[in-house]
């Protein structure tokens, strides 16, 4: 019999609810017995900002939907959303969701083509990789912004540190430049081989070359794209 190949461990560092949702997607694709460690490096902290009136909303993350829905009713308003999962969250909150494929930048032409007037409001977190409201205002579509949450840093769990200091390879999907920087700052000085799946080229650029053995960029900036990047990393490992 051939030598048994140990499965690399999947380490998830997003806020817990997002990590648990991605773990379910990962297990559905790669098998329920795959080892997964959840160690959030960021937590969502709501901010008490005044929400201006708006005829339609823009959401670039599920966190934005949750933060807004905790404060105001949807009232059947249109919500322009980045990705299917954000759109699903908006739909569940009572919005008429219009999903744009790709990242926040790709949502701008969708809004420009669909919006038929009325005030627009981007409900978001403190840090964004791309400023949708700024791009829309430059295009002549007046858009306001409200910042409803910030991300607070957390340390890696003892289990995550022990794993990173061990011998088993570790798969790490990274979903934003901020999370990439947080992960690298938390890494032990000496660590096991790391294989990074970056949701975008911007995230990949935030990763120091010395911090990983290989990095693959997702073919699309969403959860399915990250799963494809993880699949590519696994194929490369199996090929030796």
What is the CA-CA span between the terminal residues? 18 Å
What is the total domain count? 2
The rough form would be described as elongated
Task: Summarize model confidence as the mean pLDDT.
Answer: 92
What structural class do you assign from the helix and strand content? alpha/beta
Question: What's the CATH topology name of the largest domain?
Answer: Rossmann fold
- Report the CATH architecture of the largest domain: 3-Layer(aba) Sandwich
Gyration radius from CA atoms, angstroms: 19 Å
Strand order of the largest sheet: 3-8-7-4-5-6
Please give the share of residues in helix: 25-40%
CATH class of the largest domain: Alpha Beta
| Secondary structure tally: strands | 11
**Major sheet, described briefly?**
6 strands, mixed
Q: Please, how many helices?
A: 9
In N-to-C order, the SSE pattern is EHEEEHEHEHEHEHEHEHEH
Strand content: 15-25%
What ranges have pLDDT less than 50 throughout 5 or more consecutive residues? none
Task: Explain the overall architecture.
This is Tetrapyrrole biosynthesis uroporphyrinogen III synthase domain-containing protein. It comes from Thioclava indica. InterPro entries: 4pyrrol_syn_uPrphyn_synt_sf, 4pyrrol_synth_uPrphyn_synth. Residues 35-227 form the Tetrapyrrole biosynthesis uroporphyrinogen III synthase domain. This protein has 240 residues and is of the alpha/beta class. The chain has two domains: 9-41 and 154-238, Rossmann fold; 44-151, 3-Layer(aba) Sandwich (Rossmann fold), CATH 3.40.50.10090. Helix content is 37%, strand content 24%. The protein has helices at residues 16-30, 62-69, 83-92, 104-114, 132-138, 158-164, 177-186, 201-205, 223-238; strands spanning 9-12, 36-38, 42-46, 56-59, 78-82, 96-100, 120-125, 143-153, 170-174, 194-198, 214-217. A six-stranded mixed beta sheet has the order 3-8-7-4-5-6. The longest helix has 16 residues, at 223-238. The protein is elongated and about 55 Å long. The model has no long low-confidence stretch (mean pLDDT 92).
